[in-house]
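1st attempt posting a full record on here, be nice pls
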Amino acid sequence: MKHFVWISLLYSSQVYCQQVQNWKDYDIHYSTFSSKLIPVDVATAHNIVRAENRIIINVSIRKKEVPVSAEIRGTAFNLLSQEIELTFTEVREQQAIYYIASQIVNEKDTVSLQIFIKPKPEKDTYKLEFTRQYY
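the predicted structure (as tokens):
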């Protein structure tokens, strides 16, 4: 279980580079990648479904290099403008806190994501928006 962050960052760089948004004093790291890239034992430990048509959305927040917990909610929109609510699960490890959600995508789909991030005990919420294409 402790290797999920390392594995997700390693594999996400092969599919899509991990990205960072800076907001206030926070660094918001995010990436998406195929659930098939997650080793079976890690997927089992985190109740992640591995499938050709599933992606993982991974978000973590740091303030001055220290992991920060947050309230995270989000929505995905496909090419048909169908709205799919994302359910994020918090994963805590020794030196990391991150949030993962799983999303089904169709072949050759474009997914727009809106993720609302409210670091604790911040009063404001950051709106992260990005789009990914899957083939």
